[in-house]
Amino acid sequence: MKTAAAMLFLIMALSHGEGFSRHSVSATVIPIDPGLLYPDIAYEYSLTSNDAIGIASGVGLINRITYTRKIGVLCLSGSLGAVVPEHDLHRIETFTAISVEYRQSLGENLYSRIVGSGVFFEEMPYDIPVIPVIQVGFGWAF
Question: Cβ(8)–Cβ(25) under 8 Å?
């Protein structure tokens, strides 16, 4: 445990010395209906101060890989993912998504985020061209 904590502090120090945070974790919720908030956890690794790749999972049902381009407080991203309805691996559906994210700094490492996405499935349900998704939450960069 001490070794893991020491390595984490070393990574944080090295990342801070580069002038930007390399790592970011965030937790958001997706308001599906008034009584249901769907959690989503993500990790992002910054390749440069403006480009990042990441992975995210919503309770293991929605998993995706994302490329993000940061432009000030806005982030544009494209994702490729899979939905596993009711944890049934025989019913996996793949999707692509484009997103716009607004990040507001709440201190040195903490930030809030609001994300608007358009999700595209191979066979769209309900005969609509895109499924809109909104996420709100917080993140921590280190």
Answer: no
